[in-house]
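Hey,

Quick one before I head out. I ran the complex with thymidine-5'-diphosphate overnight. Inputs first:
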Amino acid sequence: MLKKVRLINLPRIKDPRGNLSFFENNNQIPFKIKRTYWIYDVPGGEMRGSHAFKESHEFIIALSGSFDIVLQDGISEKKINLNRSYYGLYVPKLLWRSLENFSTNSLALIVSSISYDSSDYIRDFNDFKKIKNATK
Ligand code: TYD
């Protein structure tokens, strides 16, 4: 599952007036966008996430500053630092993910393939491992 995780470069329109990047539904990212949310004003040392999703896929960008995304598939772990606004990380469903090590004033933009649904969350790591084993 960690193999499906990938950094996706976004278009960069360089301009002396300031640069511009974008992504569109079904272009650049491999799912249809249903929801956008962002994480900001994170106090030093705090961590967000620490859960998995049953169905939702996500694309995560550091619009400002930097942070780490720690991903686990129940067997191995991968840590990816995001620190530029012109690429992001595609995170498929059924991966345990945490966002940590936020820099001051960092802004994490996240687009999701589904509307908010609390029942899509797997919040217990042991439950996550059981579900992973059952879907093998
Ligand atoms: P949650 O996803 O649990 O944040 P994190 O995993 O980073 O700790 O969301 C925190 C709260 O925000 C939770 O009560 C649900 C709410 N929320 C929404 O209402 N809509 C959303 O799209 C998201 C992501 C969260």
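Residues 125-134 form the longest helix (10 residues).

Talk tomorrow,
K.
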